[in-house]
Amino acid sequence: MIRGRTLAVVACVAGAGLALLAAGRTWAHVTVVRPAPLPPLHQAKTGIALLPWLSALGLVALAGAGALLATRGLVRAAVGVLLLLSGLGLAAGALTRLVAGATPGWPLLTALGGLIVAGSGVLTVARGRDWPGMAARYDRQARSTSGAPRSEAQIWDALDRGEDPTR
Question: For the stretch 74-96, what's the b/e string if a residue is b when 16 or more beta carbons lie within 10 angstroms of its beta carbon?
Answer without folding.
Answer: eebbebbebbbebbbbbbebbee
